[in-house]
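Cross-posting from the modeling subforum.

Setting up a comparison between two proteins and wanted a second pair of eyes on the formatting. Protein 1 (sequence, then structure tokens):
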Amino acid sequence: MAGRREAALTAYAEATKAGDLTDPQKAYVYSRLGGIKGYFGDNIKAINDYSKAIELDPKFGRAYSLRGYLRGVIGQYDLAEKDHQAAVNLAKDQKSEDYLPWVLQHFADLWRRRGNFARALGYCDQADRAKKTSAVTFRRAQIYLDMGKNAEARTEFQKFMKESQGEDLRTFWPDERGAMSRLQELQKINEP
């Protein structure tokens, strides 16, 4: 709803009460609610919405991936890992060719948060083998940034900026926006 958060939340909340929606349609509505809440950092409520989406449609892989992502944000690493694994296991049922790399870069983020950078980069490599996407390039830049490998972070971020031309970079969630800001500042620093 063009940046009108409260109006969007109200509209989606009303849609959850619609009696003519199928369970997968209601699951989609709950995932949209979770997306808005996650975007604004209301992680617990977003997790609850993704959980409702999964209850309504147990094959909704994107809901598992985003719930796992947010569980990682709040430190529920074991639950996050289970969600990410469920999302990966559902890849064969998904129609989008971007699904698997998108899920794998979220899995990479979980390992970045846990400080296992080698495993995080391994998930990025798996994602690239499935299909190269700007989301994976961004995640790799973020991992290198957290590793303190500024030259690699800068290189990956430059690739990301070229790959993402035309994408709306305002869709990143709070922690990603923080990394984006740090990576943009890194571009201004002249290091060998």
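Protein 2 (same layout):
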Amino acid sequence: MGPVRSLVSTSATLLVAACSYAGLLRPSVLKQVTPPVAELVNELPRVDRQNEDIVGRLFAHGGLAHAKTGADGVMRVVVRVPPDQLIWEPAVIVMPHSGTLEIEFQNEDHLTHAALLPSDGDRVLLGLPMHTGGRARIRLDEPGMYTFGCPVQNHAGRGMLGIVMVRGDVPEVARLDRPAQRQP
């Protein structure tokens, strides 16, 4: 039975390693699961009904995508509006650096939506009638976190919120002039 047990153990290890949930078991992740975070995760199934609770959806429900840079230097990503869910999918978009982002929206819902997006201090509005799509091109020249949402009725308040995270460091000219801070 030794070889069979070894095969089963190896197979189980490979299955867990291949599963995206396995990353949650890393010590660096587990130490972030504080009681308030655990309470939030445990509450998610109960706040998933848009019309019964104030918090309809959270960013985590839509998932995450990394924008891919094309040959022209423009980063691109596709965002869906699944039917009857009032979420963006993905709801979190990660840009590897600042620049131009083109988002292709696909509205698969039976409701009309719109995407109100940030673009270097301005806003871009893209209408999304039911069962249609469209593209919006925005420019984000600074690292940081930017939010977008659906301004139709109370869709944003019911969960149609998204985040664009632009990776990178603050430019030298924008840094505060202060003494070096002790790092934890």
